[in-house]
Structure formats: C-alpha cells, structure tokens
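[recover] target loaded
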C-alpha cells in the first residue's frame, strides 16, 4: 500500500475515530495534543492516523487534522468511520475517513509501526448468537503485527464471549499490572489474561519477540486507574437506561454501540466521557513507554 508515512523510530499509532466521533467537537483538538504529549512523556513519538480525501496518512499534521475536524463539524456522516471492510471503498471514493481500531492497525502495520494506543477494543456484542455481531477489531489482531494497548473492551459488550473469541483466534492477551481482563470503565471483569507483566522492559521483550515470531498482533490490557474507575452498580444502572434509550430510538446493527455510548454520556452527566479520556491517556503513556523499551 502506498501511503504518506511520517513514522519514525519509536512511533506509536493513534486513531482518529475517538477524536472525530467519540468526544465533543470542541474537545477534539485539545485531546489530540494531550495524547501526543502522553506518548512523548512515555518516550515514544505519536503518529495520528486518518484518511484525507481518499489518502491514508500515518502521521497527520496539525493542519490535516484541522481539515478533518472542520469536515466533521458539518455532520456525523461527513467523515465516516473506516474499518477494514470499507477502507478501500472510501479511498476509491476520495472520501475523508476516521480510522477505527482495525483500520489503524492495518495502516500502522503497512507503515512499519508496531505499537498502537487506543481506549477499548471492539468485541462480541450481546445477542451475538443470533446476529453474529462481532467486531472486526478481533480479526485485525490475527492479521497485523501490532501491539494494541487498550483497557479491554467496552463494558456493554459480551466480555466472556469476547475473551473466548480472542483465545479461539490465537491472540495473546497480556495484562500490565493486572491478572484480570479490564472492562473499559471498570478495572476488572470475570475474565482473565494469558500472562501478567509488571515491568515495561519485560513486557517489551515479550511483545518484540511475539510480533516477530508470529506476524500477528498482541493485546496489552491496561486497566483504568482506581481514581478514574466508575462505580460498578451506578454504571450498571446507567447502562440499562442507555440500552433502553437506544432501543426506543430504533438503533440497530453498527449504530447500536454509538447510540448507547452517546446515551451513557448524557445519563452519567459526562462521567463516562471523563473516564474514557482518562483511560485512553493512560494507555497512550504506557504505549510510549512500551515503544521506547522495544528499542
């Protein structure tokens, strides 16, 4: 794939879906700067990934991000989300696009970037047995040699089924200072990890050898900090209300998760958004440390 590649040594990939679809428009540019600073604080170099007029770019400039933000201000469909199934179509159409986890992995791998920081992975949705609603993020980990630093998967997904799917797909899941698989806003779920690392250098040695050995991805799970974690019972109440809100408004298919997340932000009076930002910034710092330790 021919694409503008501004990645260099110690580069950490960052997605654009969070900025263009996951936070209020007025907060996006500030968050982009914060995430870049967090990666640098860890010893890495940030590379924001997006698609501008059909051209995928690894390492968007500030001016290029401004163009995407200006386009996204026109409406939620002005800058669509690109996943591995529609990336080529959006490129052929000359469209702008925000990269999701799977597409960020694909473009990062093509540019030789080996570490990617995000908030949470997509996974197996509730009711998957009847709809087969499974995120392409899980399959991207089997195709692209990138270490993804994330706080598990969003708490509204079927976490046991997601964890089982990762095992079935042969994706190693390692915890940083945790024995439990995180649930995004919550530090722990009932699921476990394949191994725990408490030292960044040892984690880096494993990730480097595993990416080289398999040519596939590794999931590094980093739980939200204790001070930023949401109260479990309160979150469950918010989630029930958000699901009903999404159902009442006719959300279906790929629109269910964004509808629930949007409702959660409103119902929680911004608490879930604040937690989301806190955990993705923590992941960016860890990703910077991991990339620096990989040499």
């Amino acid at each position: 794939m021919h694409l503008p590649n501004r990645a260099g040594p110690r580069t950490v990939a960052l997605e654009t879906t969070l900025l263009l679809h996951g936070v209020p428009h007025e907060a996006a540019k500030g968050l982009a700067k914060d995430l870049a600073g967090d990666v640098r604080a860890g010893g890495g170099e940030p590379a924001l990934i997006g698609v501008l007029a059909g051209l995928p770019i690894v390492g968007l400039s500030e001016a290029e991000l401004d163009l995407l933000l200006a386009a996204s201000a026109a409406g939620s469909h002005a800058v669509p989300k690109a996943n591995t199934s529609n990336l080529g179509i959006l490129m052929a159409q000359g469209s702008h696009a925000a990269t999701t986890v799977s597409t960020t992995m694909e473009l990062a791998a093509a540019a030789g970037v080996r570490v990617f920081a995000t908030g949470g992975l997509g996974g197996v949705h509730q009711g998957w047995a009847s709809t087969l609603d499974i995120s392409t993020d899980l399959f991207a980990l089997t195709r692209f040699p990138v270490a993804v630093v994330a706080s598990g998967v969003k708490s509204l997904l079927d976490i046991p089924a997601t964890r089982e799917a990762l095992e079935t797909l042969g994706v190693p899941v390692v915890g940083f200072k945790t024995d439990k698989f995180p649930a995004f806003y919550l530090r722990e779920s009932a699921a476990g990890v394949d191994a725990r690392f408490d030292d960044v250098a040892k984690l880096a040695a494993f990730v480097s050898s595993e990416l080289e050995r398999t040519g596939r991805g590794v999931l590094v799970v980093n739980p939200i900090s204790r001070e930023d974690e949401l109260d479990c019972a309160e979150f469950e109440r918010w989630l029930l209300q958000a699901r009903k809100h999404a159902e009442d408004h006719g959300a279906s298919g790929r629109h269910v998760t964004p509808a629930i997340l949007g409702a959660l932000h409103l119902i929680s009076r911004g608490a879930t958004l604040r937690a989301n930002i806190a955990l993705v910034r923590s992941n960016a710092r860890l990703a910077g440390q991991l990339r620096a330790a990989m040499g």
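[recover] notes: Strands lie at 11-14, 45-52, 55-58, 81-82, 97-99, 115-117, 147-150, 173-176, 195-197, 218-221.
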